[in-house]
Amino acid sequence: xxxxxxxxxxxxxxxxxxxxxxxxxxxxxxxxxxxxxxxxxxxxxxxxxxxxxxxxxxxxxxxxxxxxxxxxxxxxxxxxxxxxxxxxxxxxxx
Length: 94
Known about the structure:
This protein has 94 residues and is mostly helical. It has helices at 12-22, 26-36, 41-48, 52-66, 71-84.
């Protein structure tokens, strides 16, 4: 089970590390964070004050960049890369 800190799955340090690893555009980072938090396209659009089609454009670019087909695969790939970036004796790999 994933531990949430302040309502978030990743700590600020972990999130920063993950974003450096993924090297996304700033808006893609925001979209990804909201996807990880479980928000819908409409909710993301409202929070970022952009249109739903714009959210979907960013999602499509994220899918292409991370070679995934949907938001579920996107989340799994993010977690996979997070675990893979950990040194051999890291608690994330246990």
